[in-house]
Design goal:
Helix content of chain A: 25-40%
Largest interface: A-B, 50 and 49 residues
CATH superfamily of the largest domain in chain A: NAD(P)-binding Rossmann-like Domain
Shape of chain A: elongated
Order of helices and strands of chain A: EHEEEHEHHEHEEHEHEHEHEH
Largest sheet of chain A: 7 strands, parallel
CATH topology of the largest domain in chain A: Rossmann fold
Structural class of chain A: alpha/beta
Number of helices of chain A: 10
CATH class of the largest domain in chain A: Alpha Beta
Oligomer: homodimer
Strand order of the largest sheet of chain A: 8-7-6-9-10-11-12
Chain lengths: 310, 310
C-alpha cells in the first residue's frame, strides 16, 4: 500500500514519521522525485497539485487534502472525480484557527493596536474597556471552523452572530442565512470574521456593496481565502473609514508580493497564511483513519461534495 | 444615603450615571472637592486613597474597592478596620483579565511576536505550529481571576496547571499548592502567568531562585502587581535566556517611568496597567448590591480578610 505526498509547501518529514507510527505497512512516496511506478500509488496526500497531475495515477483509491479547504483541488479541471476526495478535519487545525480568531478579536476589542503605538512612545494612558456583551462579532461561515470559533467567543460573552448558506443552531449564536440574511448580518457586526469555503457563491463576497452594509469603523479579519475579497474595494473601505482596520491572512497571490499595498497600509495587518497550519502528529491519525475506512470499502470522512464546493 | 467616590485615576461620571440608575436614592459625592459634611458619608468607593484619608469619615458603613486587589487599602496603616472592606468582583473585570491572559498566551504560543517582526520586513515564512496540548501554561493564583482564565485555557486544550496557597479543584487543571508545590509547578511551565494577590507571602515571588526553576526560554506574563517581581532578577533572566520574553502590565512605580529599561527591552512588552479596567455600567450593579446588603445589616460580598490579605 503506497501513499504519495504531493505538496510544494508542506514539509514531508513530519508526515513520514507520523504516518509510519499510525500505519507501519504504508509506503511513503515523495512527489516529484521519489514517485516510483505511478500505477502502484493508492493514496494521494496533497496540497495544490499542478493541474492534471493526479490523472497520472490510474489506481488511486482516494485523494486526501492536506488542508480544510479544497479549492486547490476543485480548481483542477482534470481532477479524478470517480474516487472520493476528503477534506482535512483535525483537532489542531480547528484549534489553531480558533486561536487566531480569538487573538485578533481580542486585539481589536481591547485596542491592542493603540496600546502598541503608545508603547513605542513610552506613553501610559487608558482606553475605556468595552463590555464584551456590547461587542458584536460576526462570523461568515459556520462550518467546522466557524462553529468552534463561535462557541469559544460565546464563552467569552461576546454578542456573536453567524451567516451561512443554511440556517445553523449553535447555542448563543444568532443565525443568519442565505442571500437575504447577509445585509442584516453585516449591519449588526462590529468585528467581521471570514471563515467561508471558497465557492462560486462566496467568491468576491467582500465587495463594495457588502462592505457598505457594515457599521462605521468596523473591523475585518480574513482567514478563509484571498479570492473572497475584492482588494480595491477593501482598500477603499479602509481609506473612507467604513473599516477601521483589517487583519488578512490570505491573498489572491501567495506569498503576498513584497510591493503589495496591504503590507504597508497603516491599518492592515498581514500574516503569511498561518492562521492554522497542519500539525502532522495530530492530522496523521485522521489521515490513517480515512485510509483504513477506504480499505474496508467505506467512504472517507468529510468526503467533498463538489456541487456545494465543500 | 451618601457615597463618596475617591480615586485620582478613575473617571467619576460613568460611575455617577450608573449608580444613579441602580440606586436613585444614593447621593454621589466627589473627593476631594465635593465631599460635603464628612460625617454624612455612608460609603466610600475608593482606589488608592491617601494614607489616613478614610479616617476622616466617622460614620462610614463600608469601604468598597474599585479594583479586585486591595493592597492599595492594606497599605494604609490607619485604614478603618471596624467596618467591612469589600473587593470588587465583577463579570467585566474577570472577563477583561481572561481576555488579556488568552491574548498573551496565544501571542507567545503562536509566535505572533516573530510574525510581527516578519511583517516589518514584508517577509513570508511559516513557523511550525505547536499542539496546544503540548504547551504548558502555569497560573500563579487560582482565585476569581485565575480560575476563570484557567477554565478558558482548558477549553482551548492547553496543558494547564495552577499554584495557590491551598489546593484547588478545577476540572482539567493540575493543582499545585504551598511552598513545596512551587518548584515542581515552575519546572513544568512554559508560559507563566501571575494573577496572585499581593501579600507578604507573594511579594517578590518572581525572583532569581524561582525563575531558575523554569524551563529554558519560558515566557512570563504579569497582570497582578509590580511588587511580585524583583526587577533586576527578571531582567537578568531575560538576558541569560532563562526567559525568552515577558509581558508586564504592572510595575513597582506606575506610570512606569519613561526611562525604565522595560520600555525598550527587545523581549519585553509593557502595557499600562490595562489588563482589566473597571467597566462602570457592569460593576455598579455589584456595588449597589453590596450597599443594599449592608443596609439590610449583612456583610458585603467578598469582604476582605486582612489576615490572608485578600
Amino acid at each position: 500500500m503506497k501513499l504519495l505526498f504531493l505538496s510544494a509547501e508542506d514539509r514531508a518529514d513530519p508526515w513520514r514519521e507520523a504516518l509510519a507510527e499510525e500505519l507501519p505497512e504504508l509506503e511513503f512516496k515523495l512527489w516529484p522525485d521519489d514517485v516510483g511506478a505511478p500505477e502502484d500509488i493508492d493514496y494521494a496526500l496533497v496540497w495544490k497539485p499542478p493541474a492534471g497531475e493526479l490523472r497520472n495515477f490510474p489506481n488511486l483509491k482516494a485523494i486526501l487534502s492536506l488542508g480544510a479547504g479544497i479549492d486547490h483541488l476543485a480548481a483542477d479541471p482534470e481532477l479524478p472525480t470517480h474516487i472520493p476526495t476528503s477534506r482535512l478535519v483535525d483537532r489542531c487545525l480547528t484549534q489553531g484557527m480558533t486561536e487566531y480568531v480569538l487573538y485578533w478579536v481580542i486585539h481589536y476589542h481591547r485596542h491592542m493596536n493603540a496600546y502598541a503605538d503608545m508603547r513605542v512612545r513610552h506613553e501610559w494612558r487608558h482606553i475605556p474597556q468595552v463590555d464584551p456583551k456590547r461587542r458584536r462579532v460576526g462570523l461568515l461561515g459556520l462550518g467546522e471552523l466557524g462553529s468552534d470559533a463561535a462557541e469559544k467567543l460565546v464563552a467569552l460573552d461576546y454578542d456573536v452572530a453567524g451567516w451561512s448558506r443554511t440556517a445553523k443552531d449553535i447555542p448563543g449564536v444568532t443565525s443568519f442565512h442565505g442571500a437575504d440574511g447577509l445585509a442584516p448580518f453585516l449591519a449588526r457586526t462590529d468585528i467581521l470574521v471570514c471563515l467561508l469555503p471558497m465557492t462560486d457563491q462566496t467568491r468576491a463576497i467582500i465587495n463594495k456593496d457588502n462592505l457598505a452594509q457594515l457599521p462605521e469603523a468596523a473591523v475585518f479579519i480574513n482567514c478563509a481565502r484571498g479570492a473572497h475579497v475584492v482588494d480595491d474595494d477593501l482598500l477603499a473601505a479602509l481609506d473612507n473609514g467604513r473599516l477601521s482596520a483589517a487583519t488578512l491572512d490570505v491573498f489572491h497571490t501567495e506569498p503576498l508580493p513584497a510591493d503589495h499595498p496591504y503590507w504597508s497600509h497603516p491599518n492592515v495587518v498581514v500574516t503569511p497564511h498561518m492562521a492554522s497550519l497542519t500539525v502532522a502528529h495530530s492530522a496523521a491519525a485522521y489521515i490513517a483513519d480515512n485510509i483504513r475506512r477506504v480499505e474496508r470499502g467505506e467512504l472517507p470522512l468529510n468526503t467533498v461534495d463538489f456541487q456545494t464546493g465543500y
